[in-house]
Amino acid sequence: MTAFVANAFKINYMLIGVPKETYAGELRAVLIPNDVKRLKAIGCTIAIESGLGAGIRVPDAEYEQAGASVVSRAEAMQADIVLRLRKPGDADVAMLKAGAIHISYLDPFNEKELVQSLAKQGVTAISMEMIPRSTRAQKMDSLSSQASLAGYVAVLLAAERTDRVFPMMTTPAGTINPSRVFIIGAGVAGLQAIATAKRLGARVDAFDTRPVVAEQVRSLGARFLEVDLGETGQTEQGYAKALTEEQLQKQRDAMAKQCALSDVVITTAQVFGRKAPIIITKEMVAGMKPGSIVVDLAVETGGNVEGSVMGEEVEVNGVRILGLTNLPGRVAVHASQMYSANLYNLVDEFWSKTENRFNLDLEDDILKSCVLTHGGKVVKEV
Description:
CATH superfamily of the largest domain: NAD(P)-binding Rossmann-like Domain
Strand order of the largest sheet: 3-2-1-4-5-6-18-19
Strand content: 15-25%
CATH class of the largest domain: Alpha Beta
CATH topology of the largest domain: Rossmann fold
Structural class: alpha/beta
Number of strands: 19
Shape: globular
Number of domains: 2
Helix content: 25-40%
CATH architecture of the largest domain: 3-Layer(aba) Sandwich
């Protein structure tokens, strides 16, 4: 283990600390060795907690070879910039030094007390969920990078659990018709699910409340289910707007028939900062064929499917409902690679090469969107 450099907090540069994730079952690594090298190249000093890469089978030695110091958790948490994946617990917040920058998912819409405690600690808290969906910020948009992997994994989980094959097959014993997959929500996760299901040979139908995405759906070879909901649209960030109860009922009525025809249904509908809407009702599940699979990708934000249980697989009238969580973590190597790149791009965007430090420009459009606390105060209410 490399000794921690006690004077690493010199004012002419900033030390980046990376503690390992302690959330049960989390295998993703916040930073990978390749991005340690890239951060070193722009002038950063990196200190990682021992075992950071254990979940993706990357030993400490590889991080040291890339130029990082391997330190204790307390030392990593005392860095000038702390890079994380999951939101910090109370004990971790208490270890952060005043003036430090803490970057991770923070769930600010539901974690008001956490945001207040970070402000009280004097920490500048950057929420990865609040990175704007702009062209310039796209390279640091971890919600999109992880959602894409979740859409891919959702299809593989369904394909593994169904008792049917996805592609059409012509055999001496006869022709096997392709499985029918219905994907609800054509955001990042939904589009990746469509592409993956098509690659596996399924017949894919998709629906989204935003008519603007119909062409994207069709470009992937899927059929877009047309439902007249009246006025809908999307937010400035590109997320679907919440529907009225009347619109939701129209949507459910139109989708009930499609669900009954489908072998696999994958729901991805989420409203940013709010509880996910119920899209698939118990009645719709009851109308599906025994042996059908439903994957609820929104289960962690309340769920799109009545009867789904977070973290579990349940069977209702012969229909299996998957409410599994942390789907990106099931492909932890590439999920780590993508999240690590998102963090590198964020640091690199604001790293001053002349001053050799992170330039916390609170007037910048990106930082203005994602900095929640600074100078002992909550500077962005959500």
